[in-house]
C-alpha cells in the first residue's frame, strides 16, 4: 500500500471533471501535497486536460481495466470517485475511499424510484466500501443513503462542507469563463450566453445517445432566441450534431470540458431536473425550467421537489423557455427573491473553499462539525446468504422469514449472488419491503493461479476439503470475496440458507461473523448434504426441518462419532446442543407447484379452480400475461393468492408455523 498515491476517476473515466477534479486541483496547488502522486483513470487519450497535466511530474494517467489501472486500484492509499468502481474492486485494508456523488438530486433514483430489480446495485456496493461520503447538504446525504438502501449499515463518515465541484464554478468570473469558451468552441463573450443543460435521460436506451426530445428542445430554443444570444449545449458528439440543419448556430461544448466551469460562463441556465440547477444557484443568475413532461412526473411521483418552488419560470415549450430567457435579466430581482431561500438551504456551504475543507478532513485529519457518522439504529444486523431464489421451498422459506421477522429488532440483509432473471426478480420483490438486498456483481476476482488452486481444492472429497489445513489454505480467497461484496459492513448473525458445500457456505463459515446459523429448510437428497463435521465445526447452530436432513445427521450423532477429536460423550452433548428443529412452512408438493406456476401461468389458474374452457379463464390468462410482460407485481399477488388457496385446501396453518419458526430463530440467534 502506497499512502501517498491518490487515484481519481470521474464519470467512469470518461473525463477529468466534477468533484474529483476540484479535489485534484486543490491538492495539486497545495505545497502540503508536494510528495503525493496523482493518478487519473482516463480513457480519452486526446483529452486536452490530459496533455496539460501530464507535464507535471507527479501526475500520471492510465486507462480503465489496464494492468496499470488494476495495480493502482489495489495499491493507492486514497481513492476518489464520483460514480462507482468496477465490479472487481475490493477495498484493501488501509485504503481510504472518498465518494463525492453527483450533487443534489431532483428526480428520484434507486429504491426511492422503484423500477427494475437491482437497478441501484452498483451504488449500494460502492457505498459499502466508502470511508468518506462528500455531500453538498443534509438532504442529499439522507437521500443517497436511503435510495441506495444502506441506511443502518453504512460505516463511513459523511462530510457536508459543500460540494467541491462548485469551487470550479466560483473560481472564475463570468468574463474569464466566457473567454475560455471562446477559445474552445468559438462563443462570443460579448453576447448573452444561454446554456441548455438538461438532465441525462436514462430512458434514451443507449447511454451515449441524446434523446430526440432534448434535440427538439434544443432546436426550438435556437429558433426563438434573438441573434444577440448565444446558445450553448454540452454534447457527447458535437461534430455529429453540428451537421444537423435544425441546430445551425448552436455552440456545442465538448465532453472533456468540465460542466461546472461552463456554468460560470452562462448568463442564463435552461434546465429541467438536472442537479446542475443547484450548482448554478451559487452564482445568483437566472434559471429557466423547460419541463414539458412535468405533469407525467408529478402523476408518477418521481420528483423530490415541488417544481413550482424552484427559482425560475416553468415552461412547457421551447418557445416559452426562449422568451423567459430573454426576459430573465429584467426579472433578476424576482428570481433572486425565489432563489435566496433555496440557496440558503441547499448551497449554504458552497463558498469556493469546499474542496480545501474536504482535503483537510480526509488527508490531514481535521475535525469538523459537518463530518459525522450516521446514527446506529440499535437493531441487530442479520445477513442471509446461499439462497438461489429459484422457485423452490428454500426460496419461499426466505420470503416467509423476511415477512414474519420483527424488523424493529433486526436489520435484515439478503446477499444475492445469482443472475437476476424474471422469475428470481419476482421472488425478490416478494421479500418484506424493509429487507435490504445486496447484489453480487460480476464474478470472483481471482488470478489464474488462484483459480487453479481453488479448483484443485474443490476436486478433493468433502472430508478432505473440510480439513483444518485445507480451510486455512483457502480462507484468504473467501475473505477477499466477502470484502468485495460487503465492504466494511459487520453483521451480528450470518445465516446460511443452503444444503450444499457451495461458495456461500465457505464464505459464511470461514469469514469472521460473531454468530453463524445453518438453516436446513428444504429436505433434499443425501448426496447434497454437507459433511457433518464441517457443519458442527463452523456453525454455532443448525436449524433442521424434517426429512432426509435429520435422519443422517442424527444417526451419526447416535453412533457417537468423534467431532474434532473430542471424546465421544462430549461429542454427543456438544453436537445435540447445536441442533434446533422446526416444522418447514413450505412443503415439497407446494414448492413443485410453484415451479410449474413460474413456467406456465395456466397451472396457477387451474389451482385457483377456473375451468380452462370458461371465459373467466381466458380473461384471467390475458391479465396475468400482460402483468408478466410489464409489471410482475400482479403476478406475484396471484402466486401468493394461490399459496393461500393451496394451504386452506390442505388444512395448513401457515401463519402459526411461521410464528414457531421465528420464535425458534430468535432463540438460536441469541436475541
What distance lies between the first and last C-alpha atoms, to the nearest angstrom? 40 Å
Bin the strand percentage.
Answer: 5-15%
Counted by DSSP, the helix tally is 29
Biggest β-sheet, characterized?
8 strands, mixed
Q: Top keywords for this entry?
A:
671 residues, alpha/beta, 21 strands, 14% strand, globular
Secondary-structure topology with pairs:
Layout lengths: L1 E8 L8 H11 L8 E5 L6 H6 L5 E4 L4 H9 E6 L14 E4 L21 H8 L3 E3 L3 H10 L9 E3 L4 H7 L3 H12 L6 E5 L15 H13 L4 E6 L3 H5 L7 E4 L5 H5 L4 E4 L4 H6 L5 E4 L3 H7 L13 E2 L2 H10 L4 H15 L7 H11 L6 E2 L7 E6 L7 H12 L5 E7 L5 H8 L6 E4 L8 H11 L3 H4 L2 H19 L6 E4 L6 H8 L4 E6 L11 H7 L2 E4 L5 H9 L9 H10 L1 E3 L6 H12 L1 H7 L7 H16 L2 H17 L4 H15 L3
Parallel strand pairs: 1-2, 1-4, 2-3, 4-5, 5-6, 6-7, 8-9, 8-11, 9-10, 11-12, 12-13, 15-16, 15-18, 16-17, 18-19, 19-20, 20-21
Antiparallel strand pairs: 7-14
Explain the overall architecture.
The protein has 671 residues and is α/β, with parallel strands linked by helices. The protein contains 29 helices and 21 strands. An eight-stranded mixed β-sheet has the order 3-2-1-4-5-6-7-14, with helices on both faces. Strands 17-16-15-18-19-20-21 form a seven-stranded parallel β-sheet, with helices on both faces. Helix 1 (18-28) packs across helix 6, helix 20 (468-486) crosses helix 21 and helix 25 (588-599) packs across helix 26 (601-607). It is globular, with a radius of gyration of 29 Å. The protein starts with a strand and ends with a helix. Mean pLDDT is 80; it is low at 203-208, 523-529, 547-576, 584-598, 629-640 and 645-652.
Amino acid at each position: 500500500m502506497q499512502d501517498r498515491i491518490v487515484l481519481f476517476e470521474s464519470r467512469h473515466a470518461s473525463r477529468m471533471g466534477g468533484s474529483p477534479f476540484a479535489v485534484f486541483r486543490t491538492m495539486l496547488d497545495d505545497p502540503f501535497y508536494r510528495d503525493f502522486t496523482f493518478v487519473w483513470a482516463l480513457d480519452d487519450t486526446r483529452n486536452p486536460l490530459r496533455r496539460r497535466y501530464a507535464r507535471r511530474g507527479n501526475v500520471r494517467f492510465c486507462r480503465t481495466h489496464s494492468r496499470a489501472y488494476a495495480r493502482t486500484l489495489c495499491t493507492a492509499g486514497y481513492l476518489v470517485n464520483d460514480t462507482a468502481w468496477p465490479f472487481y474492486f475490493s477495498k484493501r485494508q488501509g485504503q481510504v475511499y472518498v465518494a463525492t456523488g453527483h450533487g443534489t438530486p431532483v428526480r428520484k433514483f434507486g429504491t426511492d424510484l422503484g423500477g427494475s430489480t437491482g437497478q441501484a446495485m452498483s451504488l449500494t456496493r460502492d457505498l459499502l466500501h466508502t470511508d468518506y461520503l462528500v455531500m453538498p447538504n443534509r438532504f442529499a446525504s439522507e437521500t443517497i443513503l436511503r435510495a441506495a438502501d444502506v441506511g443502518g449499515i453504512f460505516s463511513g463518515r459523511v462530510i457536508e462542507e459543500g460540494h467541491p465541484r462548485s469551487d470550479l464554478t466560483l473560481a472564475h468570473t463570468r468574463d474569464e469563463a466566457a473567454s475560455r469558451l471562446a477559445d474552445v468552441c468559438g462563443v462570443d463573450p460579448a453576447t448573452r450566453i444561454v446554456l441548455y443543460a438538461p438532465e441525462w435521460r436514462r430512458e434514451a436506451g443507449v447511454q451515449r445517445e441524446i434523446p430526440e426530445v432534448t434535440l427538439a428542445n434544443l432546436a426550438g430554443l435556437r429558433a426563438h432566441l434573438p441573434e444577440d444570444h448565444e446558445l450553448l449545449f454540452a454534447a457527447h458528439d458535437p461534430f455529429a450534431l453540428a451537421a444537423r440543419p435544425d441546430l445551425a448556430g448552436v455552440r456545442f461544448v465538448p465532453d472533456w470540458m468540465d460542466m461546472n466551469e461552463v456554468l460560470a460562463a452562462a448568463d442564463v441556465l435552461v434546465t429541467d431536473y438536472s442537479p446542475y440547477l443547484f450548482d448554478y444557484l451559487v452564482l445568483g443568475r437566472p434559471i429557466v425550467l423547460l419541463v414539458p413532461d412535468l405533469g407525467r412526473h408529478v402523476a408518477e411521483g418521481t420528483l423530490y421537489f415541488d417544481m413550482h418552488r424552484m427559482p425560475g419560470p416553468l415552461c412547457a415549450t421551447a418557445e416559452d423557455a426562449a422568451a423567459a430567457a430573454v426576459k430573465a435579466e429584467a426579472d433578476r430581482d424576482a428570481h433572486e427573491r425565489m432563489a435566496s431561500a433555496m440557496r440558503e438551504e441547499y448551497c449554504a456551504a458552497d463558498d469556493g473553499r469546499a474542496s480545501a475543507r474536504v482535503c483537510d478532513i480526509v488527508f490531514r485529519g481535521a475535525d469538523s462539525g459537518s463530518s459525522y457518522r450516521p446514527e446506529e439504529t440499535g437493531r441487530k444486523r442479520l445477513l442471509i446468504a446461499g439462497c438461489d431464489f429459484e422457485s423452490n421451498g428454500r426460496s419461499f422459506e426466505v420470503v416467509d422469514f423476511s415477512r414474519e421477522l420483527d424488523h424493529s429488532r433486526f436489520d435484515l440483509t439478503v446477499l444475492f449472488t445469482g443472475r437476476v432473471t424474471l422469475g428470481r426478480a419476482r421472488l425478490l420483490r416478494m421479500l418484506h419491503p424493509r429487507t435490504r438486498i445486496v447484489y453480487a456483481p460480476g464474478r470472483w476476482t481471482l488470478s489464474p493461479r488462484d483459480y487453479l488452486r481453488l479448483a484443485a481444492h474443490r476436486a478433493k472429497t468433502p472430508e478432505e476439503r473440510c480439513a483444518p489445513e485445507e480451510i486455512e489454505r483457502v480462507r484468504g480467497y473467501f475473505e477477499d470475496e466477502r470484502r468485495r461484496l460487503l465492504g466494511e459492513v459487520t453483521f451480528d448473525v450470518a445465516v446460511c440458507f443452503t444444503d450444499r458445500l457451495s461458495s456461500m457456505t465457505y464464505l459464511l463459515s470461514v469469514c469472521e461473523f460473531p454468530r453463524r446459523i445453518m438453516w436446513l429448510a428444504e429436505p433434499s437428497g443425501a448426496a447434497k448434504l454437507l459433511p457433518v463435521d464441517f457443519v458442527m465445526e463452523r456453525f454455532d447452530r443448525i436449524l433442521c426441518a424434517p426429512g432426509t436432513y435429520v435422519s443422517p445427521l442424527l444417526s451419526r450423532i447416535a453412533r457417537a462419532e468423534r467431532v474434532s477429536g473430542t471424546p465421544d460423550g462430549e461429542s454427543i452433548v456438544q453436537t445435540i446442543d447445536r441442533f434446533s428443529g422446526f416444522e418447514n412452512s413450505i412443503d415439497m408438493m407446494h414448492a413443485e407447484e410453484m415451479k410449474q406456476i413460474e413456467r406456465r401461468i395456466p397451472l396457477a389458474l387451474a389451482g385457483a379452480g377456473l375451468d380452462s374452457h370458461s371465459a373467466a379463464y381466458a380473461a384471467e390468462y390475458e391479465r396475468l400475461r400482460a402483468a408478466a410482460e410489464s409489471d410482475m407485481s400482479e403476478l406475484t399477488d396471484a402466486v401468493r393468492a394461490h399459496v393461500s388457496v393451496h394451504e386452506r385446501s390442505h388444512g395448513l396453518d401457515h401463519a402459526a408455523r411461521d410464528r414457531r419458526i421465528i420464535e425458534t430463530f430468535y432463540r438460536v440467534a441469541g436475541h
